[in-house]
């Protein structure tokens, strides 16, 4: 049975029994600033006392206006319009709707195929799950996933973990550029692959192909966005701007549900009714409280130079994980970008997922929270992604607890480098 949570401070969460857990995966890789940040909760309280909710077709709000301007400035390219939702899945759905509408309005309704990668994870709602290259989460749900006819997948060849330029080019030819409406890609894998990055040249090539064949490039930055990878956005590592960018998780660092779809001028201008109209969002989309919270988070990220801090902490974390990789034969690989890291594990194909769930459980007993990931036995892994504010001492403690958990998982592991 899961412990009952009591309270939290920084990277530590406490249960009702008084046990402390070091949060090695930022909740669901969203509590990017740790669990208690007075600068943020004070701003939330201020907003609570003014107004929590106003409906987006009746009012704009100052926090929302400011947040949109800030996100547009931070992102590369012409992503000047922002639509708000409450979860990553909802914002992915909105990206799929906008991509479809974009081509329909331009008299290209046949450009409605969405090409995604396997492995990938884009969310749990029907459209987002249908677009996800995540057979484990899609299993037995095909009857519900109405978009299966309009989703195509690219799979990496030759035992590679992510599709490369050739794989994407082949898939685009197979679908046919005249039918391809959008490509959705995670710059660094999350729940799908366990922190395997797409090569920067793959992202750059996809940008060129999108321009040449008139499909939209959609970056799913729900996990990577806003500092997690050591840059503001995952796409920044490749120096490209997508046509649509989806943000979630770290946007409010776990303080409120909020997500966003950043929309390029090209797409916004092609729609015949304004974004933000009745035809788009959800009831709670972009409320003053949620947008004020996200704005406070972004202020904190900027004022404290958090993305650069995450890049430095990530280097230390990868060294520590590489050490664990050498010591424990059940670890196959240590990888990641910034503080989006993972240990890939020896998997038992007959009881997959097994090793990752078992290790997550043992780690919790050792006072460490980690996040199981991977869509196939080859990708079975645990994500190690602490808050971006983690200190060096806390990273060392994380590695110590993980070492103890791995030792219990592999009682006969040789204590040498011999594997
Ligand atoms: N896309 C990615 C890359 C994600 O990591 C997630 C959440 N793990 C989602 C989409 C879905 O977000 P949510 O759980 O907020 O719906």
Query: How many beta strands in the DSSP annotation?
Result: 15
* Shape verdict: globular
CATH fold category name of the largest domain = Aspartate Aminotransferase, domain 2
CATH superfamily of the largest domain: Type I PLP-dependent aspartate aminotransferase-like (Major domain)
- Write down the secondary-structure element order: EEEHHHEHEHHEHEHEEEHHHEEHEEEH
> Cα distance, first to last residue?
35 Å
User: How much of the residues is beta strand, in percent?
Assistant: 15-25%
Low-confidence stretches: 412-419
Please estimate the helix content: 25-40%
CATH classification class of the largest domain: Alpha Beta
Strand order of the largest sheet: 4-10-9-8-7-5-6
| Major sheet | 7 strands, mixed
Would you mind describing this structure in some detail?
The strands form 3 sheets. A 7-stranded mixed β-sheet has the order 4-10-9-8-7-5-6, sandwiched between helices. The chain has a 4-stranded mixed β-sheet with strand order 1-2-3-13. The chain has a 4-stranded antiparallel β-sheet with strand order 11-12-15-14. The protein has helices spanning 26-29, 38-50, 62-74, 88-105, 126-131, 135-138, 165-175, 200-213, 265-270, 288-303, 306-327, 355-365, 392-409; strands at residues 5-9, 12-15, 20-23, 81-85, 113-117, 151-154, 180-185, 216-220, 244-247, 259-263, 331-337, 340-345, 368-369, 371-373, 381-384. β7 (180-185), α8 (200-213) and β8 form a beta-alpha-beta unit. It folds into 2 domains: 5-30 and 305-409, Aspartate Aminotransferase, domain 1; 39-303, Type I PLP-dependent aspartate aminotransferase-like (Major domain) (Aspartate Aminotransferase, domain 2). α2 (38-50) runs antiparallel to α10. The chain is globular. Mean pLDDT is 94; it is low at 412-419. The chain is of the alpha/beta class. This is Taurine--pyruvate aminotransferase. It is an enzyme of class 2 (transferase). One of its GO terms (molecular function) is taurine-pyruvate aminotransferase activity. Belongs to the class-III pyridoxal-phosphate-dependent aminotransferase family.
């Amino acid at each position: 049975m899961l412990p009952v949570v009591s309270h939290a401070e920084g990277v530590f969460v406490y249960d009702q029994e008084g046990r402390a857990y070091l949060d090695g995966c930022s909740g669901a890789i969203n509590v990017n600033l740790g669990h208690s940040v007075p600068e943020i909760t004070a701003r939330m309280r201020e907003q609570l006392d003014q107004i929590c909710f106003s409906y987006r077709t009746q009012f704009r709000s100052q926090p929302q206006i400011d947040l949109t301007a800030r996100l547009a400035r931070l992102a590369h390219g012409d992503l000047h319009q922002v639509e708000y939702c409450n979860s990553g899945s909802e914002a992915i759905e909105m990206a799929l709707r906008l991509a479809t509408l974009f081509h329909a309005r331009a008299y290209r309704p046949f450009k409605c195929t969405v090409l995604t990668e396997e492995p990938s994870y884009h969310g749990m709602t029907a459209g987002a799950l249908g677009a996800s290259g995540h057979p484990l989460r899609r299993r037995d749900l095909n009857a519900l996933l109405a978009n299966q006819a309009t989703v195509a997948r690219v799979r990496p060849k030759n035992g590679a973990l992510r599709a490369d330029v050739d794989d994407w080019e082949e898939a685009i030819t197979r679908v046919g550029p005249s039918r391809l409406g959008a490509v959705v890609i995670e710059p660094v894998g999350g729940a799908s692959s366990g922190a395997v990055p797409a090569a920067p040249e793959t992202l750059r090539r996809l940008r060129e192909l999108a321009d040449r064949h008139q499909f939209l490039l959609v970056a799913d930055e729900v996990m990577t966005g806003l500092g997690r990878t050591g840059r503001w956005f995952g796409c920044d590592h490749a120096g490209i701007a997508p046509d649509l960018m989806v943000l979630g998780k770290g946007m409010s660092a776990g303080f409120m549900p909020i997500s966003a779809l950043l929309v390029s001028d090209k797409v916004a201008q092609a729609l015949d009714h304004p974004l933000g109209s009745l035809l788009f969002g959800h009831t709670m989309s972009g409320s003053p409280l949620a947008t004020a919270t996200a704005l406070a988070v972004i202020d904190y990220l900027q004022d404290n130079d958090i993305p650069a801090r995450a890049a430095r902490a990530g280097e230390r974390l990868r060294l520590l994980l590489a050490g664990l990789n050498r010591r424990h034969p059940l670890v196959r690989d240590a990888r990641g970008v910034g503080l989006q890291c993972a240990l890939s594990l020896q998997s038992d194909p007959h009881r997959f997922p097994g090793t990752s769930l078992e290790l997550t459980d043992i780690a919790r007993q050792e006072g460490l929270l980690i996040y199981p990931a991977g869509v196939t036995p080859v990708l079975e892994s645990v994500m190690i992604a602490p808050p971006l504010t983690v200190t060096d001492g806390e990273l060392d403690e994380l590695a110590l607890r993980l070492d103890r958990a791995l030792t219990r998982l592999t009682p006969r592991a040789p204590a040498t480098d011999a594997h």
